[in-house]
Amino acid sequence: MLRRLTPVLLILLVVVLGVTALAARPEAGAPRRTADFVVLAGVAGLRWDDVDPQTTPTLWRMAQQGSIGSLSTRSAHRPTCPVDGWLTLGAGSYAAWNGSRQEGACPSVGVTIEQPDRIGANLPDQESVVLHNQDRLPWGAVPGSLSESVRCSVAIGPGAAVAAARPFGRVDRYAPELPDDPAGLLGSCVLSIVDLGTVSGDDPAARAAEARRVDAALATVLAARPPRSLVMLAGVSDTETPSRLHVAVADGPGWEGGLLTSASTGREGYLQLVDLAPTALAALGRPMPERLFLGRPAIRVDGRPDDLAAAIAAPSDADREAAAQRTVAGWFFALLALAQVGLFVAVLPLLRRARRLAGPHGPPPVSRRVVATVELLLVAAALAVPAALLADAVPWWRGDDAGWWFGLVTVALTVAATALVRFAPGHERTLGPLGAVAGLATLVVGADVLSGARLQLNGVVGYSALEGGRFAGLGTVGLGVFLAGALLSAGRLAQRFRRAWRPMVVVTVGGTAVVVVGSPYLGSDPIGAVALTAGVAVAAAISTGGWLTVSRLVWATMAGLALTIGYAVVDLRRPAEERGSLGRFLAALGDGTGGLTVHRSSTANYETLVNSPLTVLAVVGALLVWFALLQPWGGLMRLFGIYPAIRAAMAGTGVAALVGGLLGGSALDVAGAAAALVVPMAALASLRVLDHSTDRTQPGAGRQRGDGPGGPPAGDAPDDGPGGGSTTAADDGPRTDRPQPDGGRTRDAGAGDDGASVGVEGGSGARRPAPADTAGGASDGAGDTAEGDRDTADGDTAGGGNGGGNGGAGVRRAGERPAGAGGPAVPAARSPERAATASTEVVAD
């Protein structure tokens, strides 16, 4: 009874670990009232490259006194044009001006501003803009929400009027230009929004001239600022393509000499444009609107270098990296998809000819050199993404030809990693490369996450701060590689243990991965944690043998639901402003606005599906597996029969990747990243299994019971231990099988794995061939005869054990008595032996 409940208890353990990891929250300073007045000064196009002591002395002094950060200006329009940036600032959510505009361009937009009196102003188009954002855009933004949250607001300049206009178009106080002495205007309301101008173009001299004018206007504002006020300067938008990171500076009581961050980014030194509205309300001590902003209040954190030049160099360098990443990432994934597709096509004829057939009429075997070269290429293809992640440790983006530098660094790292796998101990074994590649990929991504995910931020295979979707933790590609590597590593490690211990091994490794993915201190991906929990549940359920049945799939679904419900209960108990994405979604369902989230997710899935090169990797990988590797000649069914823990790991990877992609709005991107690692390794392992399908093993002598978790099952001794174990031709080099002194004979290493023995028909001397590889044959008699895991002595077969896997005892001939049977032994008739082919298979680990 306890043995049957073990998988259930282990899955519950994963759920508990996942809920614990997701429920924990990093401690952050709670926003508090710090000012009586707030002044938001915006400059379209201002970047950190424009700031220096000579050109912008006022801004330089403000940055020295206050806190600084890089601002992502994402809005509902790509790129964020000036009018979209000002509208998003006032809405606190992603917004865009209505009207037909070409995607990827920033044409001039005329905003009508009426002044019926000398106090305020009116925007007649504001109501139509609000309806456009409510009905046509998926974010549900309400332009003017910031002004609606205070009693009175001031706007200076046309851009500020767009941000300060209430939903019905009224601006409380308005001045079309900054007066020489704006003290009275800035002190008339608790919130003032000032348009300081624009910095645009690529000409350094022109940008410097515009930056000087902006700096002079900023000096006027700072000289007239009200007492106990917070002044925030922000580069509110782009002015052309491509998008860039912009300036963010906060100066006031409680904002001295630090870095800016917010809960929406989770990364020190980074803010979003949608964070400015809640920051202003939090500084004033005002409540947030009923329909929460997408942004979160900014806070100050320590960690800024004392030297301002060094402090500014970091966000400026991040801006250059993010700009280069956008271009390089596209061609990298396109080339990766093309290379893997070509490699998969080249593998097909090798799979057809990998099995060495007996007789003079079989096709000649493929050259060992060709096979070894293809194996190395498969390893390199699987390691390309981890190598690209490591490449961001080198500042390749600082050169003139950034793409070429990235390519050279990535190729060098890929070659080094491939050599490491090639010369690692155990490479000659069937699962040697698979285990080494999976472990290396998990180590690279895991080490990056544990160190703050610095390589993924603005990295080619990471995420870009320009997109505004994620700033910390695991990205889409990182999640796919990490979950695939973790589950394959768990399966490879579990295969070395006896059957009863395999679920525990899978849950131990998989549960640790769930904590890494879900913890807000590390991966910060609750959806990925839920998906990985389902994958671990599947892998643990079938790691002892058998296929993915409906009941096992139900258990995996229940594990994912249990983790989701547990986390949702904890998240909903938090205050509204501290909830995570799941808690906010459930709260939105309660107030009837959850459809917007569903719409955004479905839209993101569709756009990613049709535009991402990773979709090609996922689809082509699935086609190769289904139409080649899973065919009788493909070898994957045979691999699954011999190594059920690997089958479990691959099934769990498929479940986790699909769930994580669809729920996370990334379609097949997670599956594509996982396939880039799993499919080449599956093809390589299939080639090796087929290559060893005609290997012979010698019968072992005595067997002794093992009693440790890593020891053999009852009645089995380690394959390489004293007392004899099965050895293959690779153990002694090429040899010819000979009759044994005890009348036994050599056994086909693949026959027991396929579910049938190779013996002699009724003493007639006619040899009975092993059956062809089929789904049932591979699983029914697998017996885990390879890798020192002979569980067939206890009836541990992949599908029930009905014919194969003699536990190393050899194959009885017709007329032989079973070992230990009473009466005199009757020797069997001899039959001619066939010469064995040399093998590289190593049975024992």
Spatial order of the strands in the main sheet?
6-4-7-1-8-9-2-11
Please give the number of β-strands. 14
Sheet having the most strands: 8 strands, mixed
Shape: elongated
Q: Determine Rg (CA atoms, Å).
A: 33 Å
The helix content, as a percent range, equals 40-55%
Question: Mean pLDDT score, rounded?
Answer: 78
- Structure classification: alpha/beta
Span between termini: 32 Å
Task: Quickly count the helices.
Answer: 27
Q: What share of residues are in beta strands?
A: 5-15%
Q: What oligomeric state is this?
A: single chain
Uncertain runs are 697-845
Descriptive notes:
The two termini are 32 Å apart. This protein is α/β, with parallel strands linked by helices. The chain has 27 helices and 14 strands. The strands form 4 sheets. It has an 8-stranded mixed β-sheet, sandwiched between helices. It has a two-stranded antiparallel sheet with strand order 3-5. Strands 10-12 form a two-stranded antiparallel ribbon. Helix 3 (82-91) packs parallel to helix 6 (158-164) and helix 15 runs parallel beside helix 24.
